[in-house]
Amino acid sequence: MSRTVELHLNGHAIGLETDGSRSLLWVLRGELGLTGAKHGCGEGVCGACTVLVDGAATQACLTPVAAVAGKRVVTIEGLAEGDRLHPLQQAFVEAGGFQCGFCTPGMILAAHALLARHPRATRQQILDGLDGNLCRCGAHQRIVAAVEQVAAGKGGAS
Amino acid sequence: MTPRASREARREPPGDYGASPDLGVDLDLGTLFRDGLDRRSFFRLVGGGVAVFVTLGAEDLFAQGRRPYPEDLNAYLLIGADGRVTVFTGKIEMGQGVETSQAQMVADELDVALDAVDMVMGDTDRCPWDMGTFGSLTTRMFGPVLRAAAAEARLVLLDLAAARLGVAREALTVAAGVVAVAAEPGRRVTYGELAQGRQIARLVGEKAVLRQVEQFRVMGRSPERFDARAKVTGAAQFTGDLKRPGLLHARILRPPAHGAELTSVDTAAAARLPGVVVVREEDLVAVLHPTPDGAATALAALRAEWSAPPAGPDTETIFAHLRRTATEPQQVDLRGEPEALLEGASGRLTSTFHKGYVAHAPLEPHVALAELVDGKMTVWASTQTPFPTRDSIVAALGLPEDKVRVLTPYVGGGFGGKSAHRQAVEAARLARATARPVAVAWTREEEFFYDTFDPAAVVEFTTALDGAGHLSLWSYDVWGAGSRGAELYYDVRNVRIRSYGARGSAIQRDGRRLHPFAVGPWRAPGANMNAFARESHLDIVAAAAGLDPVELRLRNLVDPRMRGVLVAAAEAFGWKSGRALSGSGQGVACGIDAGTYVALMAEVEVERASGRIQVKRVVCAQDMGMVVNPEGAKMQIEGCITMGLGYTLSEELRFEGGRILDRNFDTYEIPRFSWVPKIESVLVANDALAPQGGGEPAIVPTGAVLANALFDATGARLFRLPLTPERVRTALARAVPS
């Protein structure tokens, strides 16, 4: 059923004319042209489609658009401020926390949600917080180092 | 690190066909273009400037493999009037960092700043033919060609500058793309000014001398990767992120099992859905819709009947099937009198090892987007093999070669699995059938179904050890995995190495089916299994003889590179000498791949109740010759070891005949953050040797090093990969307590 779903996307209030049962991932990637969130598994088991919904890491592939009505959705495209990277993005660049880059948007947003809950996250909290996000290239060690940098208040853009 | 704020902006937007205006250039370039691209087309494609072509000699035919080189231009780069350097390479970027490392090579040899270099990768219309990005070949095989082209371009530019400034070439110096008279630095001209208004093509004739390590300014360092900013901001475009006007998303009807045939299909209900287009073309039944979810709904509306697939081996019976079915062996090595020693030698030990099928499982599934415009088929594909992909589309569609162009955006992981490119052919067929741009993006289930798996394999291995701890016999038979990595580097006199069944194809030359589904190259193809068998068995030999596992290896090694990495690893790790079964959980394993020598040492803890192995620490010592980008090399080492945890600890595809039982990451588990050990890399300096491969070597001994560490921790010896908790528990129940 097509209806208007209103939400805040990357800081802007928008209204979407769409079938509310459609998955948020396809609407983001299609109509909204935000392709940072990736389709990796379609079942919420890889984390490549992770976005923030009211600050929490959410698998966009399993989330109906209607479920984000009235909420704040942030995608990877909404993280940097103009040319200035978010500290997490900067830390990923500096630590080399990516290889192919396909899991990276979801990874950074999962880390963002983790640090929102635990701003000074321990190594164990980082491992637990990111365990649902898969990376096949094996960039894990440097991803953890990137998140640790930010958690220690050392990383990223000033 | 230099910030590269606008790097992503310089990668061409999708749909920019890269066509520059026809400059009407008409140069007499002799036979240069004899069989290849004609010169007008060339300059139309690349614009004006100084272009350098490299024609590879006969010795490079082998390096490129199966297909003989046509006598055409093979690698080139272009210096534009703006002074920017564009590198055209048939290699693709799938995370391994070669977009940056190739630019580093060019920047150094040409004497320009790294950020003056732009990369065009994997575009079959503009890049030199290339077999594909695999086998850790980019740096060691294509690298020297690219460096030679850049060094030659520097000579061309120096000659132009010498003429312009009225001095001899020898009187000039170059820095950052500016040529100056050494004695009068005020007299200078930039590469851009030299290239202005010229269309110069020159073959590499005079041998340009490549730079030595001590002359490197850009190589040997780790600048910020070209793809970094784009990949952390979501701006990086993968094939599935591209849009074309009127694009349709396709879902293709798939069989429930390999070998099942379509007996009937009713498409009527799907065809009635708004916006749906149905294609039925021989073996291809597809539904298309402007949205991917719309296409999925249409697929669910298809009613199809399939024949029962033929019976075949399953996850457990496959090993007997391989031994029964594999063709007569290929003799890999034969020395001395192995057969006599198999009968009579004392100190003989035999072990048999098994390993199941393993999936590539890149996070980005196979994706392609095809568009037919004015008779030309353009296909963007997530592929490791743009040129073979083009050839497959040419063959499937019956189009002339120049009517098919393949472009390769960033690839979201490949590991060998994206050498196969079925999805690109499917997209091209559907684009022709519908006369619309078509995207084919495999679901995870399709990815697990059509993957070209790392094959199941069996190894039977017998050695004999004399009283002095020297190996006197090496009899090694492998079924299914092929012989890569089975080559002997230990010092043994009586050797027989045999490989049964061709690697890489499910059907053997005799027509019999060896594997129930497609198999293919998987990061260091076959070498992981061969190292698991060899290095596990050597530890068994060491334990039986009461020798330290490192000591046994050193006693049987004369190769200085292997001794070098083994000693370096032991030092960095803090290897505690003694007999295995020390209880500390330390392990060692070695291997050679892609010209690179590697020794791994690991420390594990075993949770006895669950059988779960927790890897605490892995040290890798690697001799890869000259290192172009040290951090990039270490990232590849870490990636190898982390990915290797998967085939070692959990990954084994479950199947019944042609029916694939693992279809997503919920049951097929790949490594997670909680699994990952502390990884330390030691690059053993060897600048006298040209750069060797880095994308695969460190994954090779990962299975063996963990199996050996498990044994050292618990006395449990596992002969089958992966070392699942269940198998560890079973082995623990049998193991002799230490």
What fraction strand of chain B? 15-25%
User: What shape does the CA trace of chain B take?
Assistant: globular
**Of all protein chain pairs, which has the greatest interface, and how many residues does each chain bring to it?**
A-B, 58 and 58 residues
**Which strand order does the major sheet of chain B show?**
11-12-9-19-16-17-18
Structural class of chain A: alpha+beta
Describe this structure in words.
The complex is a heterodimer of chains A (158) and B (738). In chain A, 31% of the residues lie in helices and 17% in strands. Chain A is of the alpha+beta class and 158 residues long. Chain A has 2 domains: 2-78, Roll (Ubiquitin-like (UB roll)); 87-151, [2Fe-2S]-binding domain (DNA polymerase, domain 1). Chain A has a 5-stranded mixed beta sheet with strand order 2-1-5-3-4, covered by helices on one side. In chain A, helix 2 crosses helix 5 (140-151). Chain B folds into 3 domains: 7-233, Aldehyde oxidase/xanthine dehydrogenase, molybdopterin binding domain (Aldehyde Oxidoreductase, domain 4), CATH 3.30.365; 239-308 and 366-441, Aldehyde Oxidoreductase, domain 4; 318-341 and 453-734, Aldehyde oxidase/xanthine dehydrogenase, molybdopterin binding domain (Aldehyde Oxidoreductase, domain 4, 2-Layer Sandwich). Chain B has 20 helices and 29 strands. Chain B has a 7-stranded mixed beta sheet, with helices on both faces. A 6-stranded mixed beta sheet of chain B has the order 14-22-21-20-15-29, with helices on both faces. In chain B, helix 4 (98-110) runs parallel beside helix 5 (138-165). The longest helix of chain B is centred in the N-terminal third of the chain and has 28 residues, at 138-165. The two termini of chain B are 51 Å apart. The interface between A and B is large, with 58 and 58 residues.
